[in-house]
């Protein structure tokens, strides 16, 4: 697979491990997307849930109606971009 991996999780049944309480960094592009597209903080919550799965390769996942692309940078999670996804019909 050349692109980011895909993961979908609802987040309802997941509890945050202690390690997931670390900070999440936004790239400038990601921060702009949060502001421009009114992305809810659930995107950050989703990254914290998937922290054990992140590595240097971008991971794309859907969490509570938000599609997020994130990866690890120098050991810290970084959201590359995020946008709202319309509900499936």
Fold and architecture overview:
- With 89 residues, the chain is of the alpha/beta class.
- The chain has helices at 28-37, 42-49, and strands at residues 5-9, 25-26, 59-63, 66-73, 76-84.
- It has one domain (22-84).
- It has two helices and five strands; from the N terminus they run ββααβββ.
- A hairpin with a 2-residue loop joins β4 and β5 (76-84).
Outline of this structure?
Strands 1-3-4-5-2 form a 5-stranded mixed beta sheet.
When the domains are counted, the total is 1
User: Class by helix and strand content?
Assistant: alpha/beta
The whole-angstrom Rg is 12 Å
Strand order of the largest sheet: 1-3-4-5-2
Task: Quote the beta fraction.
Answer: 25-35%
Query: Which percent range fits the helix content?
Result: 10-25%
* Average pLDDT metric: 75
Please trace the helix and strand order, writing H or E for each element: EEHHEEE
Identify the quaternary structure here: single chain
Number of H/I helices: 2
* Low-pLDDT residue spans: 16-21
Gap between N and C termini: 28 Å
Quick one: overall form? globular
The number of distinct β-strands equals 5
The biggest sheet amounts to: 5 strands, mixed
């Amino acid at each position: 697979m050349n692109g980011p991996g895909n993961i979908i999780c609802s987040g309802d049944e997941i509890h945050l491990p202690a390690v997931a309480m670390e900070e999440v960094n936004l790239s400038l592009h990601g921060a702009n997307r949060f502001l421009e597209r009114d992305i809810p903080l659930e995107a950050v919550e989703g990254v914290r849930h998937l922290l054990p799965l992140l590595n240097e390769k971008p991971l794309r996942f859907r969490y509570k109606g938000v599609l997020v692309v994130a990866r690890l940078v120098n050991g810290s999670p970084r959201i590359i971009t995020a946008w709202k996804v319309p509900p499936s019909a």
